[in-house]
């Protein structure tokens, strides 16, 4: 027994589960962060039942469809979109990076995942990675483990319709903001 802990051999002797147990025992905040992520997965489960809810989600998906169907085959990231109003310069004002993610997921699956499913996955990723990113940012800013966990938890519960969070993405459908 060393320092109140039973010596179970070297980490290499205990295998993967033994090392994971040691990490979770030394850093209980990872377990709590995992619970926050599971809660977040539970809250976004309805994303996969069709078009994600939000007044701005169909136009966001429209941009993804146009990027995949018209712009990328012509090796362009911006261009004239004739189907929006009487024509619209697509991706001159919205940067295309957030819209490339679902197209990339769709193309990596060789088209087996429909573009809508790839969009649903990327919307869910914006929510699942939000508390992880806030936790890492809080720790980088020298907040305590508890402060970082509280920040990660509040990142899921507090939002505004115009800046993101659960409210912003589900009510307004601010897809690029949720990935930011």
Strand content: under 5%
> Over the alpha carbons, how many angstroms does the gyration radius reach?
21 Å
The biggest sheet amounts to: 2 strands, antiparallel
The pLDDT mean sits at: 77
Structural class: mainly alpha
- The helicity comes to 55-70%
Summed up, the helix count is: 8
Describe this structure as you would to a colleague.
The protein is mainly alpha-helical. The protein is 62% helix and 3% strand. It is elongated.
Provide key terms for this protein:
single chain, 180 residues, mainly alpha, two-stranded antiparallel ribbon, 8 helices, elongated
What's the gist of this structure?
This protein has eight helices and two strands; from the N terminus they run αααββααααα. With 180 residues, it is mainly alpha-helical. Strand 1 (79-81) and strand 2 (88-90) form a beta hairpin.
Write the layout of secondary structure elements.
Elements (H helix, E strand, L loop, with lengths): L10 H16 L1 H16 L13 H15 L7 E3 L6 E3 L6 H12 L6 H26 L4 H13 L7 H8 L2 H5 L1
Antiparallel strand pairs: 1-2
